[in-house]
UniProtKB/TrEMBL annotation:
Residues 221-235 have a biased composition (Basic and acidic residues). Residues 1-27, 198-246 are annotated as: Disordered. PANTHER family: REVERSE TRANSCRIPTASE DOMAIN-CONTAINING PROTEIN (PTHR33050), RIBONUCLEASE H (PTHR33050:SF7). It comes from the Eukaryota. This is Uncharacterized protein. It comes from Klebsormidium nitens. Residues 1-12, 204-220 have a biased composition (Polar residues).
Length: 593
């Protein structure tokens, strides 16, 4: 039985109580609870074979009747009482579906998403998740219809939802730490929670998650979420999408799912597509959806029409003289010979706009035009970093690639999820091999499309300042990174370069391999002997300050303070070190000569 639906004749989502006038309003008598029994296996275990024709028949019958409200309520009546977690989730999803106000429905859906995170801590905290949803719904009613909401009102509601979530989450974690509830294995993996008894644990891995146990005992297990593929065709009008039912496309997707998991197990994509750390209120709740898309705004013609500011015309000799003057003043200040002219400083501050460059006329990429001044500044420096800075100014930064073999598994997992949305699953591994990234073009995050005008204004600003430039028409870079928008609390454009970063050589910030001795803040921490030792590098710094004091004809307060600070910092390795700094502090106060 195949049924074609006209998208405009059925409204799904917020306001779902509206039904096609030609079909009439559905009643519970049309589909009775026994209708669903043929989708279940015998009571002792679920059916091993999935009947796609039965599923298609159910979808067709429900869709032809329009509203799903009554049928969802019938399904919930058929839930076993012991599976309260599933029942409460279905009830809240039904409330979201029945909500006629689209903005309120979105906030309710976000609340349900947050409530699920509380369950990820422990199924024993189900009562907290239910109470959290109830309190949020009560607060939402106080704000009335969304037609009267301002942006500040939306931000206030979102703040309330988050605040209540963090409060309930803290309570759940507290109960877990006290041992009052049992933890969930795999917390953080974004997996659905199912209660099964001990006998169910011996059934095959593709057992039906909704099949309840016969006795009252139950144990907590983690099951993976069902795979949901994107619809082949859909139309979008306003903030809600109207799905177009296509049985052929649905059958094709189901066949693909069987190919991806021939043994009945769920693929990696099914796990990684769900982001437990995502904020459901972050995407576009605080702002209305823009009418124009990025592809309509950001065209080659528009980019070419943006004037790029000319580089500032520096007087190089004047810059070098200015550097010498500043260095001389710093030396005089260090020796206590600099006389401060307050009137001159006050006059400079009163005309500060004339004495500094206009930030609105900023032009990126000016460092390499002022290299003579940098050379004057660093000519006497013997530090390795000084040479590195000069090299970067003259030749630019050169990234070091080493491949993904040493990449952290957490970062690899995120990049895999990005690739699964862009390339076929069988090709993902090929994009993570080799020393350099492969050629790929990622799609922008949905938040960028939802805030297209903001992103386009940011791009225009960067183009005008020279911070970015457009590729010639007909060409593109090897890797096209996606962009998005986050609110914290103001909108900020982000560039997601995680795929490239996965291949880059990372500077170690910690020891990944266990060690008994390591350098830390100028000390050698020896866990074998249980002592702190002063590192050779720190010793050389102390000796350098001592030699400077011994060889100087005049000792300034700054030199004494530097020596005292060096001695005090040796405390963890030399407990009496601070005692030797007392005469230095006395000399600075004039009590000792």
């Amino acid at each position: 039985m195949e049924t074609g639906l006209i998208p405009s004749s059925t409204q799904f989502g917020a306001g779902g109580s509206q039904v096609p006038s030609r079909l009439g309003t559905p009643t519970r008598k049309e589909i009775h609870p026994g209708f669903w029994e043929k989708f279940k296996g015998p009571q002792e275990g679920p059916s091993e074979d999935f009947n796609f024709d039965l599923l298609k028949e159910a979808v067709s019958q429900i869709a032809m009747r329009g509203s799903l409200t009554d049928y969802m309520e019938v399904v919930m009546q058929d839930y076993p009482d012991m599976q309260k977690s599933w029942r409460s989730k279905a009830r809240f999803l039904l409330d979201v579906y029945k909500e006629p106000d689209a903005k309120t429905a979105k906030l309710m859906a976000a609340t349900f998403f947050f409530a699920s995170r509380i369950n990820y801590i422990s199924t024993g905290c189900e009562y907290m998740a239910t109470q959290y949803c109830a309190e949020v719904r009560a607060e939402l009613r106080k704000f009335g219809k969304s037609e009267s909401w301002s942006k500040d009102t939306v931000l206030e509601i979102e703040s309330m939802i988050r605040e209540k979530y963090f409060n309930f989450k803290a309570m759940a974690e507290k109960e877990l730490s006290r041992g009052n509830v049992k933890p969930i294995n795999g917390w953080g993996d974004a997996r659905m929670l199912v209660e099964t008894d001990a006998r169910d644990k011996e059934t095959p891995s593709n057992s039906n998650a909704f099949q309840g146990s016969q006795n009252g005992s139950s144990k907590t297990e983690v099951a993976k979420p069902e795979k949901t593929r994107q619809a082949k065709e859909c139309t979008r009008s306003g903030p809600l999408a109207e799905p177009r039912f296509d049985p052929a496309a649905m059958r094709e997707d189901f066949n693909h799912a069987e190919e991806d998991s021939p043994d009945g197990a769920l693929s990696e994509r099914q796990i990684e597509d769900v982001d437990c750390e995502a904020d459901p209120l972050m995407a576009d709740s605080a702002t209305e959806r823009d009418e124009s898309t990025l592809s309509e705004l950001c065209t080659f013609e528009e980019v070419a029409a943006i004037p790029v500011r000319a580089p500032f015309d520096y007087d190089l000799e004047c810059l070098k003289d200015g550097v010498r003057r500043v260095l001389g003043e710093l030396e005089e200040f260090r020796d206590g010979r600099l006389e401060v002219n307050e009137e001159e400083d006050r006059a400079w501050l009163q005309n500060v706009e004339k004495n500094v460059l206009n930030p609105d006329q900023f032009r990126a990429g000016n460092f390499n035009r002022t290299i003579p001044a940098w050379e004057e500044l660093l000519k006497d420096s013997k530090r390795k970093t000084s040479k590195m800075v000069l090299g970067a100014l003259k030749e630019g930064l050169k990234p070091s690639f080493e491949g993904t073999d040493n990449a952290l598994e957490s970062k690899r997992k995120v990049v895999k999820a990005m690739l699964l949305k862009t390339v076929p699953k069988r090709e993902v591994s090929s994009f993570l091999t080799g020393k350099f990234p492969s050629e790929i073009e990622f799609s922008n995050h949905q938040s960028a499309e939802d805030n297209a005008d903001f992103v386009w204004n940011e791009v225009k600003s960067n183009l005008a300042s020279g911070a970015i430039s457009a590729y010639p028409k007909g060409s593109k870079p090897k890797v096209v990174n996606p962009i998005g928008v986050v609110f914290n609390p103001k909108p900020r454009r982000i560039l997601n370069a995680r795929y490239i970063n996965l291949f880059m050589k990372s500077l170690p910030k910690c020891l990944l391999e266990p060690a008994q001795s390591a350098d830390w803040l100028g000390f050698v921490v020896d866990s074998l002997l249980e002592i702190f030792r002063i590192s050779e590098k720190k010793k050389l710094k102390v000796f350098a300050v001592l030699e400077q004091i011994l060889e100087s004809d005049e000792i300034t307060a700054r030199m004494l303070a530097s020596m005292a600070g060096k001695l005090v910092s040796l405390g963890p390795a030399m407990l009496p070190a601070s005692l030797f700094s007392r005469p230095l502090f006395a000399a600075m106060q004039g009590k000792l000569t």
